[in-house]
Specification:
Length: about 400
């Protein structure tokens, strides 16, 4: 592979990883932030995670159509600048409200990195070559969530939580420098589409009127909502409830690798079984596994050992990773003629649904894992029903 292509892959992976870094590297610092900002309700600290997703849900809708209209690089400059401003606001915050404003802006800005990076990849590559490039990018992208909490924990050894936001600012500046000097614009002027609110609204209507896109967008939002609940609760459950302390980041990283493993498994199975069957069977597997774990919790007075719980999460993430890899693709599949707008609409609605669900799960945490396990069980069951009654695929389950 040529050096320019290698540089492009690294830059795209770096941009896409800013979101994961801004979420996962903060997890070890939540306890310290709770004390520093005098947050009385322990569950309110979860908002520091979920607010990033809320900001993303609004930004995802904007940057796709904007990048089609004015080119790819300008929206990235705008988004990364907003990300830097949000990081600075969070860095200087002295109460939860200001912190959440900064985190919202971080998510709103970082959404550009997710949407526009994918568009730039589509501009440069297609077919098998695009598949190879995306596979290489995903390898890097998967490693980041596994390492991010350890990075955050490492930073805390040398300073307090504002230092993590200082690093976010430096990473944002580095991204802008690399874009300016190492990356050319990928969308020529003759291929640009004027930005129009009417076109955006038409894209939203067409996406949500399509029964296949509507169903899979809803299902992906439900599944991702359960995962956002896990992200919001992971520090309280692993670091506080199971008393892992500084070891939290290592356990979190290992669990993140299960999603990476499932991405590899999915790539090997999808040609044989197809995305639809894999998604349905993964939902059934997640529901069955959660049902078994609920029985174990019942007979163990609501709390299993750490390693039994980690086993449950690891196996659950194998199913969740397969769902992540397929549901969005299934949602956008019938809308290839408006793929750019449809991707923004689907990602935005998916994220917005997941934020509400994740916040609801986190709010009901009372010192045991029942809210998290119940969410995986109930949401997977609802998802199975949606697919069954939308496409009459009950016989395939």
């Amino acid at each position: 592979m040529s050096a320019p292509k290698n540089g492009f892959i690294v830059l795209m992976a770096f941009l896409m990883s800013l979101i994961a870094l801004s979420i996962d590297s903060m997890l070890p610092a939540l306890g310290e932030i709770k004390k520093s900002l005098s947050i009385e309700n322990a569950n309110d600290v979860q908002l520091i995670i979920s607010t990033v997703f809320l900001g993303m849900s609004f930004g995802l809708m904007l940057y796709g159509p904007l990048s089609d209209a004015i080119g790819r690089k300008k929206p990235l400059y705008i988004g990364i600048s907003i990300f830097i401003v949000g990081s600075f606001i969070s860095l200087i915050s002295h109460n939860l409200e200001v912190m959440l404003l900064g985190r919202f802006l971080q998510g709103f800005g970082a959404a550009a990195c997710r949407v526009v990076s994918l568009a730039m990849i589509r501009d440069q590559f297609s077919g098998v070559e695009m598949g190879k490039v995306m596979s290489l990018i995903m390898v890097i992208f998967i490693i980041v969530p596994a390492l991010a909490p350890t990075i955050g924990q490492f930073v805390l050894f040398f300073g307090s939580w504002p230092l993590i936001f200082g690093i976010f600012i430096l990473l944002g500046l580095l991204a802008m420098i690399l874009l300016r000097f190492r990356q050319e614009e990928t969308l020529s002027i003759d291929k640009r589409i004027p930005f129009s609110i009417k076109n955006l609204m038409n894209g939203i209507k067409e996406t949500m009127r399509n029964p296949i896109s509507r169903a899979y967008t809803l299902v992906s939002g439900l599944v991702f909502g359960a995962f956002v609940g896990y992200l919001s609760l992971s520090q309280q459950i692993l670091q506080d409830q199971y008393k892992l302390g500084d070891k939290f980041s290592y356990y979190f990283g290992v669990l993140a690798l299960f999603i990476g493993m499932s991405s590899y498994i999915n790539s090997r199975l999808v040609e044989k079984f197809g995305m639809e069957k894999l998604s349905i069977r993964s939902l059934v597997g997640l529901f069955s596994l959660s049902s078994i774990y609920m029985v174990l919790m019942y007979f163990s007075n609501g709390e299993t050992s750490l390693y039994v719980f980690l086993g449950y999460l690891g196996l659950s993430f194998l199913f969740v990773g397969i769902l992540f890899g397929n549901l969005t693709s299934l949602a956008i599949q019938p809308l290839g003629h408006i793929a750019g707008v449809a991707n923004s609409v689907i990602s935005s609605i998916q994220t917005f649904i997941s934020v509400g669900i994740g916040a609801y799960i986190g709010h009901h945490y009372t010192g045991n894992v029942y809210p998290l396990v119940i969410s995986f069980l109930v949401l997977s069951l609802i998802s199975i029903c949606i697919i069954k009654f939308s496409f009459n695929q009950g016989e395939e389950i």
